[in-house]
Amino acid sequence: MLNYPALDGPFHYDSMLLEKNQELFQSGGLRSVIKIFPQRPLTMASFYANYRFAGLIPYYFRVVNVLILGLAGVAVTLLVRLLLGTPALNTHSDSRQKDVLSILLGLLYVVHPVQSVLVIYIWQRTALLCNVFFLVALVSYVASRLNRIPAAVGYPLSLLFFLLAMVSKENAIILPAIVLLTEFALFGTGFRKLIRIGAIVGGVTVLVLAMMSILERPHGAGEEASGIMATILKYYDESGLTFSRVLVNQSRILFLYVSTIFVPTSSKLQIITPQILVNSITESAGAAAWMLAAGTLIVSGLVLLKRSPLTGLGILFFVAALLPESFLVPQYLFIVYRASLPMIGLLLVVADICLFLYKSFSRAIDAGFMRKAVSIGLIGSIVLLGVTTRLRAAEWSDPLTFWKQAVQLLPPLSENIEKEGTLHTLNLLILNMIRKGSSLEEIADYERKALSLRHRPETVNVVMGNGFYARGDVPLAEAAYKKSLQIRPDFVHAHVALGGLLSNQGRNAEALQHYERAVQLEPGNARYRHYLGVVMLKMGNYQGAAESFHKATALDPYAADSCYQLAKALLEMGKQNEAVTQFQKTIHLNPGHAAAHTDLGVLSAMSGHLQEAVTHFRSALRAKPGDPLAADNLETALRQLRDGSDSEKEGY
After folding, report:
1. What's the burial of 256, exposed, middle or buried (CB within 10 Å: 0-12/13-18/19+)?
2. % the chain with pLDDT above 90
3. How many Å apart are CA 342 and CA 421, to the nearest integer?
4. What is the CA angle 216-321-294, rounded to 5?
5. Helices marked H in 11-124
6. What is the pLDDT of residues 458-476, one digit of tens each?
7. I want to staple 291 with a disulfide (CB 3.0 to 4.6 A). Which of 251, 268, 635, 649 is the partner?
8. What's the predicted TM-score (pTM) here?
């Protein structure tokens, strides 16, 4: 397996969000996990299923990613083969040649090192699922147009898979445009019919955008702003760029993606590859040249839609697939995994070139020789790309080495460097240096570099605090969090991190202050109210804790653990009936909540409902095998049932 060396590595970059939310996976239930990133519910549900099957173990998450990539490869093969059978291309080559070509291009897609990033960088299951559903939606549509499957089946399937792609990752929004381009280029659809089709797919797109506007939030859950426009504005604010600056810089980046696909060198295969920014088109002749080149590429794609349909479609597919993230998530100009879906467009161009070779040289030389030559060339590319993928996978196995290499490849730090990506790269190196026990002097050197960017400096010390805390160095972690708050007193993440540290140290009065401040800064954040309630519960302020948990559950009705903690607070207040209701609600939201089953079992036993208690204790043991408290309580309840003894006379 090409990615095997990296399968057992730790969580990387955004994937660490899964590890950070381990508590939600354990006790929050599916709905709470989806709320981590609500605009991508299908992906989050798949992560939860992964957890239920094998825990938060990166190896098994990556194995599932490999399987999804395999499905994407099959979908690419089917799509290419169907497109080669459309009216515009049906006279080119014979069926066997097209079968072989489609299979080889599907293999090339799967072994490409860009796809390796999606497999190993677990969070990008979002892109993998999006790609699979996007491709299957397009396959269903084209198969229906070719009468390979009934229209009554194919078109609804295409719509269904489009929706599944959208709730995996928003990039799929370009599918309606690709459908229209395919109709025009490969089916020869006239403008009147194209307008009718456009009206239908346009209506569907508007409805989908309306749905996404409800779900969309900057960076997922926990943000006050919601909706598509609020999310885009937030991202532009973080980038510090205007749309015109993004347009100028993305003109060059467009060709960097082309070179990454055709010549995937190690320097281009980092998760983050910060760039030197150009301020305007008038700043240099190079900026104007890249703008002209990008415009020429797009115009060429439009012209070729009729003259060389598959190449024209491929070029425009490539450009269109890059648009959503390039312009709507401008904090990072170039991220290698963005090339995954656009790559399919360039594979269509390669397919057209192969068809041209088959046709042009079949008379001049033996046709069989040309078929073999093309196949050997593609197989050689597959082998070369596979070797590159294998070598690159080995580099992912050690996070410290991985991020050191990323920092070494950074452009010289200057005012024009892309700051957000550079900051993340340095922060992740610092975090892994701390985890690996690097010297404080060496860590401080990279801290100075990160702070020299003068871009969100408060995050640097929170990252350092997280690293120190993870390795058990509480004093250094506390100092780092406090330093972050000196830089920016209203930085909510520092308040939450410091509150968690202090609470775990038993310094609840101090922790309370930081959680109260976090709630003041983000009153709509259910998790922060949950943390505040937990500290109040520890301090014996049961009324305050209950109020905080009530507010948390009002903000997030599916927060099973907040319901559970509310039940604990109500129980301490002597409100047993209300507590039972909250325990039952907890189990309804998360049937695998072992602690809720155990506590409800105890209350049932104490009320004389021993059979009901046995059921809850057994459920607790199914959710958490070997749990000593549930096991002891089950033994006691079974003995009472057998002996007919009084449950109130035996302790639980």
Report:
1. middle
2. 61
3. 22
4. 125
5. 16-20, 22-27, 29-34, 41-54, 58-83, 95-111, 113-120
6. 999 999 999 999 889 999 9
7. 251
8. 0.87
